[in-house]
Amino acid sequence: MERALVVLETSEDGQTILREAGELAAGVDARLDVLALMTPEEYEEKRETLEAAGKGEHTTYNERAVLDNRRQRAEETVEEALDDLDVDWNTVAALVGDSETEADRILQSAEKHETDHVFLTGKKRSPTGKAVFGDRSQAVILNFDGPVTTLLG
Predict the structure, then answer these.
(1) What is the per-residue burial (b if ≥16 Cβ within 10 Å, else e) of 37-69?
(2) Is the pTM value of this prediction over 0.90?
(3) Average pLDDT of the residues of the chain
(4) Residue 24 needs a FRET pair 20 to 30 A away by CA distance; which of 62, 102, 118, 151 works?
């Protein structure tokens, strides 16, 4: 492993997989990219919140500003989780487009960052649940050309 991608989650499982990926990356001197995804709904909610808290009534926040805010929050999370590890890491924030899935965005980011190992959390679902709602972890496992480590919560 030379370059790993961790999909950041705020859950306990998300913190666990982030820590495990960090320890593994530190052990093999690999770079760790941490991906903080935003759905269109999360983006719009955050944009409205930032505008409401802004100084002046003409303050607007574009996609770049909202994603920068998300990346900064992600950096704080990563710093806390990996503060005692000697690992080179970087945070990336990405907006999931209306016509794509989270798995699509994860795979695009993995390709862009030349990732050779992906770490993410998943949800336990029945086969019917996977068929109806899709499964992000399954899609990444099936479409990523390399190892995928998943922690099912």
Answers:
(1) bbeeeebeebbeeeeeeeeeeeeebeeebbbeb
(2) no
(3) 88
(4) 102
